Amino acid sequence: MIGIDWGVKETATTTSDPHDLPHPEHGKKAQAKLARYDRMMARRKPEKGHHASNGYQRAKQGRAKAYKKVARQRQDTARKWAMRVVADHDALAVEDFRPKFLAKSTMAKKAADAAIGATKQALIEMGRKHTRTVHLVHPAYTTMGCAQCGARVKHALPLGMRTYTCTACGAESPRDKNSARVMLHRAGLHPARVDRTRPSEAPPREAA
Ligand SMILES: [Zn+2]
């Protein structure tokens, strides 16, 4: 079984280190190209009632082509990764993250969200095709629970805090790894063999 948490720096952080998926770097170059076309289009935007200039049309075509390329690369990376994850695991606990694509979010955030969207979709399809059990876990609170003892901290971790320290049992782990493990718990899967560093399986309890 595998627990999967989605993020910006790493598209997928999982309970299995070899299956972690870093945010694809090829997306960065392509995103810069997209942004350049966007600026070109903005500069050449036709005034109301005027025909679009050739320059504007060219920029628009260039943008569409660049966009297609990004989508294709994203799709390709997502499918290859999903294939590997499904081949190596019987049960998947996946954060049910839904990207919002807010207009005011940054380019990097948009790219990360698009990568997550495509990767999650590919994983669900691949899992279905190979009759794996795919648990979709509601994303709320997953960064607040302790994967070691099951305790929940009172406040959400600030985004800048990369290490999760449990106030109940003292366990420390990288934030995203902890979240990936929490996915397994929330899906009702008990990763006795996934987490070999765990000293003992303590019953889940709530922090005071
Ligand atoms: Zn704990």
How would you describe what is shown here?
The protein is an alpha/beta fold. It has a domain of 138 residues: 2-Layer Sandwich (Nucleotidyltransferase, domain 5), CATH 3.30.420. It has four helices and seven strands, in the order βββααβαβββα. It starts with a strand and ends in a 22-residue tail after the last helix. About 6% of the residues have low confidence. Bound molecules: zinc ion.
Number of strands: 7
SSE sequence, one letter per element? EEEHHEHEEEH
Fold-level CATH name of the domain at 2-15 and 78-201: Nucleotidyltransferase, domain 5
Which structural class fits the helix and strand makeup? alpha/beta
What's this entry about, in short?
By secondary structure, this protein is an alpha/beta fold. 42% of the residues lie in helices and 13% in strands.
Please outline the helices and strands.
Layout: E1 2-6, E2 10-14, E3 21-22, H1 26-43, H2 54-88, E4 91-95, H3 107-129, E5 133-137, E6 163-165, E7 172-174, H4 175-186
Parallel strand pairs: 1-4, 4-5
Antiparallel strand pairs: 1-2, 2-3, 6-7
The protein binds zinc ion.
Zinc ion binds next to loops.
Question: Can you tag this structure with a few keywords?
Answer:
208 residues, alpha/beta, 5-stranded mixed sheet, 7 strands, 42% helix, binds zinc ion
